[in-house]
Amino acid sequence: MPLSSRKQIIFNHFESIAPNYLKYRKRFSYYSKDIEKYLNFFINDTDSILEIGCGDGETIHALKGKDKTAIDFSPKMIELAKANYSDVDFYVMDAENISLDKKFDVIIFNNIIGYLDNIQDVFYSIKKNCHEHTRVVISYYNHWWEPVLNLGETLGYKTRSPQQNWLDKKDISNLLYLSGFETYRVNRRLLIPVYIPLISWFFNKYIAKLPIFRSLCLNQFIFSRPLLNYKEEDVSDKYSVSICIPARNESGNIENAILRLPQFSKHREIIFVEGNSSDDTWEKIKEVQAKYSGTHDIKIAQQEGKGKGDAVRKGYAMATGDILMILDADLTMPPEELPKFYNAIATGKAEFINGSRLVYPMDKDAMRFLNTLGNKFFSWVFSWLLEQPIKDSLCGTKVMFREDYLKLTENRKFFGDFDPFGDFDLLFGAYKLNLKIIDLPIRYRERTYGDTNISRFQNGFMLLRMCWFAAGKIKFW
Description:
Elements (H helix, E strand, L loop, with lengths): L4 H13 L3 H7 L1 H14 L5 E5 L5 H5 L4 E6 L2 H10 L4 E4 L11 E7 L8 H7 L4 E12 L4 H9 L14 H10 L2 E9 L9 H7 L13 E8 L5 H4 L4 E8 L6 H6 L7 E8 L6 H11 L5 E6 L5 H11 L4 E4 L11 H9 L5 E5 L12 H18 L11 E4 H14 L7 H10 L4 E5 L14 H19 L3
Parallel strand pairs: 1-2, 1-4, 2-3, 4-5, 8-9, 8-11, 9-10, 12-14
Antiparallel strand pairs: 5-7, 6-7, 11-13, 12-13
Helix pairs in contact: 15-18, 16-17
């Protein structure tokens, strides 16, 4: 097929600069290294990767992954890439007509969509190379920087480029949606894209991550995934579930947790983990297991450690279900709501479902005033840290696929075993796995038995320390 006039201009441009491209890349190595560093944060060693418009191949060569493929429509660029990097399979190929018979875990567009003749056609083209968990990551210039980059070309600091498509994040997200993808995270990086000793380090590591300043950064990253259109009736018995119920001093709620649990999913596995109770919770758990052994699959355990996080990890280690759920034994999150969590994750609405108690009105004494203020504060902090809206970070009910949880445990060393509650461990781990996180509103009820196990001030300061620690791992690195 003959090239359009614009595509021919772009083709001629890249063919002409190929001989001097290594010198060009060296000039902008500080900028390029930051992109590679950020992408590698979300890429696993076992991922298969496809880069569209790879240029000289330096970016994909620098990325983690066990199986790397790259395409570019410039034969001279591919020739250059093959001469320098043997760990990547390079192909001369038009992005609008990809002929690769393979599915990838990650597909990357690194500052290339501005040159594409028809972006929507390219997004359509990659769909056959996606499975339902594929991530499409797009890095592109913030459109507010267009005058600055044009000035750089005029002054000779930047190589002159053909006219580009200057798109903002809404334009790109809309094109993705029209092509069958959904955007779930947007981030920006680099206030100063060139290396200036100390100044670049300080501004890019700290100032660029703050609200307002972040909107001025040069590079924007858009994360998307294929839209899944499963219906609830199609997945009603597709997956099995394991429901972990941590219980400390909750004797009066144990049987109700069984009686109030609706029928849903292919199979339900209930795991009680008792945690150093001073009442007869453990005896009640054993009694309930024996009483309902004919109708329910119930596993029980006592934790050796302390804290809800330790109990959840022990329960999840025993779990065999496809989907893992947490149900607090105080039953302030009604067990009757769990089918909603199942439907949300089974139909592909998200890969991590986080309960939110702060949408609907609560029972009068369900949450104390200072607790409510604390939850709203941590909601703001988490939304900033995780770059996805998190209304209620401390709701006990969280749901994810066991397959993803096993990956999370492998990556746990990145954050360390620092969270006695378990909420942060799971949320930060989901972020590191690049999962789509979504809130599911619930009706938060007043407890009918026992007292809360949470100390507002002591645990509040502990949560602040964990947020500060996580900010260093997620934001300021």
